[in-house]
Amino acid sequence: MVWSILGAGAIGQLFATRFIDAKIPIRLLLRDAILEDYYQLHRIQGKETRHYQLPVDPADASTPIKYLLVCTKAPDTLNALKQYQHRILPEADIVLLQNGMGQHEQVQAMLPKATIWAGITTAGAWRDRDHHTDLQQLHCVSEGVTEIGCLSRTSVLLPPGLENCDPKINLSSNISLSLWRKLAINCAINPLTAIHQCLNGELVKKPELLANMQQVCEEIEQLFARLELHLFDKSVFETAKQIAIATGDNRSSMLTDRLNKRPTEIDYITGHICRTAKQVGIGVPFNQQLLSDVKKLSSIQCHVTLDRHSPLR
Ligand code: KPL
After folding, report:
1. Index of the ligand 1 atom closest to the CA of residue 122
2. pLDDT 10s per residue in the chain (313 long)?
3. How many CB atoms lie within 10 A of CB 245?
């Protein structure tokens, strides 16, 4: 059993090192070819620094892919998968460990016989380079909690090998509910922080931003009522407020993308709410507005550049 890993950002690299620790054989599928057979990095966690050699698939590799972990950004999923479609076995197990919703169905449509799993993690890591050795460094800031659930069928087992990971990966029997919960919070926090270029905590401190967050949440609440989804003990707004406070000093992933001039995941976050609302005939005008505002922003030049990922992704 070999797990191929697509998307070698901080989360992809973090799970690659966790798989190696769990003695799960891996191959990195890299977008940009490298000459070496291994991708080397130092993983820095608290006071511990460990050196890893992550095996890389050569550009002309043709070995079939049976187990695939996808850690790309949601909007990049289909294009990234297309490059390996000829190698992915029809009955492959594909774990999408990503933010957002909507991409899972697209991948299932592309690979109808594959078993699609969704994963959510609160693990946090960011990358930079050691200026002396030029070696990649992966800074792990929080172990987080990771859950995986099967979307194609019911399963009482994790995909093979993943039961050996440490920290443990939890098997979810209803991962869709967790995806909706995460989506609601991301809709409440991410677009507003990206538009106003503020940290998560400022959404709660500034009355006009708090009112905006409330509007987002109330529309989502209505949609969830129509879908008969009961996701939180409190209202979506109260829950989002709590998370904005708890992650107050964080730069959201969408603001980080904006500042780094990368495409955002808005189509798979607020976009998914807007698409679903349309399907069931509910208006979500404020979310629709945020969707178009963030899309507009992505096309506007931004002069600040960051070299650090948001610590909580
Ligand atoms: O998940 C997040 C993100 O930034 O994508 C939140 C919860 C908003 C924390 O920053």
Report:
1. 1
2. 999 999 999 999 999 999 999 999 999 999 887 778 999 999 999 999 999 999 999 988 999 999 999 999 999 999 999 999 999 999 999 999 999 999 999 999 999 999 999 999 999 999 999 888 889 999 999 999 999 999 999 999 999 999 999 999 999 999 999 999 999 999 999 999 999 999 999 999 999 999 999 999 999 999 999 999 999 999 999 999 999 999 999 999 999 999 999 999 999 999 999 999 999 999 999 999 999 999 999 876 444 444 343 433 3
3. 13
Q: For residue 255, which atom of ligand 1 is closest to its CA?
A: 4
Q: Is 264 in the pocket of ligand 1 (CB under 6 A)?
A: no
pTM over 0.90: yes
Let me know the angle formed at the C-alpha of 6 by 56 and 106, rounded to the nearest 5 degrees: 155
What six digits make up the tokens of 308? 């650090």
The CATH number that applies at residue 250 is 1.10.1040.10
Which atom of ligand 1 is nearest to 193's Cα?
8
The label of the residue with tokens 């939180």 reads: 232
Are residue 104 and residue 245 in the same domain, yes or no?
A: no
Cα-based angle 231, 236, 240 (whole degrees, multiple of 5): 115
Test site for ligand 1: of 183, 253, 269, 308, most ligand atoms within 8 A of the Cβ: 253
The two most distant CA atoms of the chain are separated, in Å, by 58
Is residue 32 situated within a structural domain? yes
193 lines ligand 1 (CB under 6 A): no
